[in-house]
Amino acid sequence: MAKVLLVGAGPGAADLLTLRAARAIGEADVLLADALVTDEVLALAKPSARVLRVGKRGGMKSTAQDFIHRVMARYARRGLTVARVKGGDPFLFGRGGEEAEYLEALGIDVEVVPGLTSGIAVPAAVGIPVTHRAYTHGVTLVTGTAGDGRDEPNWAALAKCGTTLVIYMGLGRLLNIVARLIAAGMPPDTPAAAIASGTLPGQRHVKGTLADLPNRVIAEGLSSPAIIVVGEVAALARVQDLGIDEAAARVLAA
After folding, report:
1. Given 86, 89, 169, 207, which residue is catalytic?
2. Following CA atoms 216, 220, 223, 229 in sequence, which dihedral angle do they give, to the nearest 10 degrees?
């Protein structure tokens, strides 16, 4: 029976894969991997597997989604085990829902292998608990880039929701996002942080206030992929930018 596995590869580091994801990657005959899936993760594939890089990155030439759909269906119909491997979780800003609908409409079975999403794992990697109950009653996960001609998020409503905001794919539009949140009434001194390459060896982050976060990001040269956190819990991020841990930072400040 034709089958495709939609596999979440987690936030980046290979040892944050689930056991089920590692097994699925190792059993697949064909793997279609997103740009954020690392070589260490793909090294788990069997030697005979065919690995196709079909990543999408903002502002760069990307593989068309229709092409990805067709390739998955073609290999599955040949009786091969196909793994569509995505960073984070396949159903959270990963277009896994679209792919499942397409494949199931063709009579192709789909198995979803959930992954640890970057919106939870990456803040945790720098010490931010996105739902610390002393500071917030919830967390809202939102994309900073709507794409495909869709309206962008309702920043005015989000500014008033009272939850931690975790923003995916928003670094390139950070100035606009900050301006809209402040214009909608969010205090400019609301704690905020940006984390780049979370859970990977090159992980870096900055923290400050909503108003000064864009300048901090520019000053430290942070680049995508990155997660943005806005809310009181962002103040809990560790002081470890550029490899300086909290203890060393206190010595330097003394």
Report:
1. 169
2. -40
| Per-residue three-class SS string for the chain | CCEEEEEECECCCHHHCCHHHHHHHHHCCEEEECCCCCHHHHCCCCCCCEEEECCCCCCCCCCCHHHHHHHHHHHHHCCCCEEEEECECCCCCCCHHHHHHHHHHCCCEEEEECCCCHHHHHHHHCCCCCCCCCCCCCEEEEECCCCCCCCCCCHHHHHCCCCEEEEECCHHHHHHHHHHHHHCCCCCCCEEEEEECCCCCCCEEEEEECCCHHHHHHHHCCCCCEEEEECHHHHHCCCCHHHCCHHHHHHHHC
Q: Which among 154, 163, 160, 166 is positioned nearest to 186, based on CA atoms?
A: 160
Q: What is the pTM of this model?
A: 0.89
**56 catalytic residue (yes or no):** yes
Q: Could you say which of 3, 56, 212, 241 is catalytic?
A: 56
First to last CA, the chain: 66
Catalytically annotated residue among 34, 72, 86, 186 = 34
Which residues of the chain fall below pLDDT 70?
A: 1, 56-61, 147-149, 240-254
What distance in Å separates the CA atoms of residue 57 and residue 224, rounded to the nearest whole number?
Answer: 9
The pLDDT value recorded for residue 152 is 84
Name residue, tokens 């490899």. 243
Gap between the Cα atoms of 183 and 127, Å rounded:
29
Contact 37, 17 (CB under 8 A): no
- Known catalytic residue: 1? no
CA angle 21, 22, 24 (to 5 degrees): 65
> Phi and psi at residue 250, in whole multiples of 5°?
-65, -35
